[in-house]
Amino acid sequence: MYNFGANYILYMNQNNYCIIMAGGVGSRFWPVSRKNNPKQFLDILGTGKSFIRHTYERFTEIIPPENFYVVTNKIYKQLVKEHIPELNDTQILSEPLGRNTAPCIAYAAYKINKLNPDASMVVAPSDHLVLNEPEFRHVIAEGFDFARSNEVLVTIGIKPNRPDTGYGYIQIDSSVKTGDFHKVKTFTEKPTLEVAKMFIDSGEFFWNSGIFIWRTSEIIKQFRSHLTEVHTRFDSITESYNTDGEEESINKIYPECRNISIDYGIMEKADNVYVRCSEFGWSDIGTWGSIYQHSVKDDNGNAVTGDVLEYDTEGCIINMPKGKIAVIQGMKDFIIVDSSDALLICPKDDEQNIRMYIEEVKMKKGPDYI
Amino acid sequence: MYNFGANYILYMNQNNYCIIMAGGVGSRFWPVSRKNNPKQFLDILGTGKSFIRHTYERFTEIIPPENFYVVTNKIYKQLVKEHIPELNDTQILSEPLGRNTAPCIAYAAYKINKLNPDASMVVAPSDHLVLNEPEFRHVIAEGFDFARSNEVLVTIGIKPNRPDTGYGYIQIDSSVKTGDFHKVKTFTEKPTLEVAKMFIDSGEFFWNSGIFIWRTSEIIKQFRSHLTEVHTRFDSITESYNTDGEEESINKIYPECRNISIDYGIMEKADNVYVRCSEFGWSDIGTWGSIYQHSVKDDNGNAVTGDVLEYDTEGCIINMPKGKIAVIQGMKDFIIVDSSDALLICPKDDEQNIRMYIEEVKMKKGPDYI
Questions:
Q1: 3-class SS string, chain A
Q2: pTM of the prediction?
Q3: Is a pLDDT exceeding 90 seen at residue A93?
Q4: Closest Cα of chain B to A136: distance in Å?
C-alpha cells in the first residue's frame, strides 16, 4: 500500500498488468543505437541505467512482479532478459517481426485475457523519459481505477510546454469530463509549427504519450469492432496462449497481420477514449535534440558523454564510447557520436538527415553498420 | 650497374652505407601516430607501404643489403624488423633513449668506421616523402662520389617552391661551386613568412632535407672538433662496437650525451659543408597540411583514408581506421582523425595546437593515449 498524497491510496491490484513495448530499432540514434542494440537498451542520457530498465522500475511499485510482460522482436529477447533479469521466459513475448503497435498490443491483451478475464493493462513504450516518477505512478493508478470502473480506453496526454512539431496531439472535449479524465475529440499526427502554436493557444490539445490503460476485455471488444482481421487472427489461436504452442501460433499469424498502429487502428475510431491530462516531466527522447535538452551541460553548453577535451566548442552533443578519448576544437552546435565501428558528425539542426544517412550507409557499406 | 641518364653510371659501391634514423615519436600526427606506433611505421598517405619501408626501398638499388643500418629507440626494434625483415639483428641499432640526431649519427658512424675505415654513409630520416626516386638516387650517388673525393660534409638541399615557414633553410655561397655542389654559407631555422619570402626571392636558399652524406672518418673528425664530449664518449667504447658488449656500452654512454641535433652541433660549425641543390619531389610530411597537400583529393577536395560518406563537407583531411565508417556533414577545412581509442577533430589552420592537446591528454587522461 502506497500513499501518494491527497488522500490517494494505491493498492497493488493483482488484476493490473504492465505491458512494455520494446521492439523498436531506434534508428534516429545511429550510430550509438544499432539494429542489434537499439535505443531502449542504451543509457544515452548517462543515467546509469538503460531506458527499458528505467521503464520497468517505474512500474514496480504498482504492478505485481509476475504481471509484467515485455513484447519485443525475437532478436532482442536475450537483451530484455539481461536488462530485466527479474522476468521469467514466459513474461517476454517474442514477435517474429515488427508489425507496429496494434498487433503487439493485441498479442499481450488476448494472452493476458485468457489468463485473467478481469485483467486491466497499462501499455508503455520502453524508451521514454519520465522525470517525476511518483506523479507518473499516481496518474497510472488513477487510470487503472478509471478504466476498471468504466467501459473506456484511457490514453495519457501530456500538457504541452512548447509547440513541438515532433509529437502527435490529442484534442479534448472539454464538455465531457470525469475527474481528470476528458473525453477525446480528435487525434492529430505531427502538426506544422503554425498549427502546433494554435493547438497550444487553444488549451484543448495534449501530447500523445503513447501510454494507454484499459481492461483487456475492453480492448479486445474494440479490436473486434475496428480491426476485425487482427481480432480474427488473435482470437483464432486462443487455445494456444500460455501453452507450449503459443510461439508457433504467433509465428504463424503475425506475418499475416497488417502493420498498423494502435492510434490509427483503434484510438482514432473508438468513441469511448478518455485522456488523462498529466504533467510528470515526460519526453519520448526521439531526437538528439531532446537528448541535448535533457542532459546536464558543461560550462560551454556541451552535453558530453565520455572523455572529451574541448577547445572553442559550444552547444554540441558529444557521445564517446567507454575507454576512448576525444580532442575536439572549433565545433558549434554539432552532434558528434562515436561508436565502435561508426562515427557521425552532423550539425544539430540537420539531425533529420540521419535516417537518410542510415539508408545510404546500408546501401553502400552493408547492413553490418546499421 | 645502373644508368641514370646523362651518361651518369652508378656502381653499387661496397663502401657505401645507408643509415636510416627511425627513433622519432611523430607526435604531430596524433592520434594516428602513437608513442608505440609512430609515424615512420604508418602509411598515412595510403600508399600501401609505411614511410620507413619506402625509405628502405628507395636505397636498395644503390646500397648493398648488408650496408643498411637503422638507428631507433629500443622500443621500436621489433617494429623495424617487421617493416624491414631483410635486416638482421646487428643492422638495427637500439638507442636506450632519444638524444636527437647527433648521438644517433655518432653511434652509426663510429660503429661503421670500425668495421670499414673507408666507409661513406648517407644518413636519412625514415619518415619523409620522395616522389621522384630515380632522381633521388642520382643525387645520392653523386653525393657519395663527391664526399669520397673531397674532405667535405654533404647535405641535400631542396629547391623551395614556396616560402614555407616550417622548414630550415640553407644559404649557398654562389661563388664556391663544384658541379652541383655549393659551399654552404649559413643554416637558418624555421624563418618568419617575411624572411622566407626574401629567402625564396634571393635564389640563394634551399630547404634543409636532413639528409647527409660523408665519409665516416670525416664526420668523426668533425665530432672530435665540434662535439668533443660526444666524440670522447663514442671513441671510448671503440673496443665494443660489433661485439656482444656493444649494447651495454651504448646503454652506458647514451644517457650521458647531450640532446643535440647534428645541424646545431656540427653542420652550423664545420667549414667544409657543401649542399647538393636538388629537386626530387620531397616533403618531410611534418604536418597534416602536408599530408593533405600530397594526398589524392576527392571531388569535394577532401583527402580521405577509410570509408567515409560526406555531405556538404570540403577541404578536410579525414582518416578512419580499417573497418570503421564515418558519416560527416557540414565540415569545412577540418582534420578528422579517428584511431582505436582517440578521436581528433580540429580545424586545419589550428593543427599547431595538436602538440598542446597531446600534453593535456597525457596530463588529464594518462600516458596510454599518447
A1: CEECCCCCEECCCCCEEEEEECCCCCHHHCCCCECCECHHHCCCCCCCCCHHHHHHHHHCCCCCHHHEEEEEEHHHHHHHHHHCCCCCHHHEEEECCCCCHHHHHHHHHHHHHHHCCCCEEEEEECCCEECCHHHHHHHHHHHHHHHHHCCCEEEEEECCCCCCCCCCEEEEEEEEEECCEEEEEEEECCCCHHHHHHHHHHCCEEEEEEEEEEEHHHHHHHHHHHCHHHHHHHHHCHHHCCCCCHHHHHHHHHHHCCCCCHHHHHHCCCCCEEEEEECCCEECCCCHHHHHHHCCCCCCCCEEECEEEEECCECCEEECCCCCEEEEECCECEEEEEECCEEEEEEHHHHHHHHHHHHHHHHHHCHHHC
A2: 0.83
A3: yes
A4: 38
